[in-house]
Amino acid sequence: MGLIGRTVRVMLHASEVVVYDGGKEVARHELLIAKGQARLEVDHNLEAPVRKPGAVPGATAP
After folding, report:
1. Side by side, which strands form the sheet with 24-30?
2. Where does the record place the Transposase for insertion sequence element IS21-like C-terminal domain (predicted)?
């Protein structure tokens, strides 16, 4: 997705939060309302590494 460092528009609704990049919706999540609640959406936060940590120099991920 590559949104790190970009400015996005976030719409907060009664039961969900929606994120837009330009006119395109890029994420939609149920709004967490209880204090201390957390949710990790791994597919939104991790990008495949170009090189495996500790790999032989010049090696790339498959």
Report:
1. 9-12, 16-21, 24-30
2. 3-39
Q: Single out the residue of 18, 16, 45 nearest to residue 8, CA to CA.
A: 18
pLDDT digit string (tens) for 51-60?
Answer: 556 666 666 6
* pLDDT at res. 45: 59
26 and 10 Cβ atoms separated by less than 8 Å: no
Q: How many distinct structural domains can be found in the chain?
A: 1
Label each residue of the chain as H, E or C.
CCCCCCCCEEEECCCEEEEEECCEEEEEEECCCCCCCCCCCHHHHCCCCCCCCCCCCCCCCC
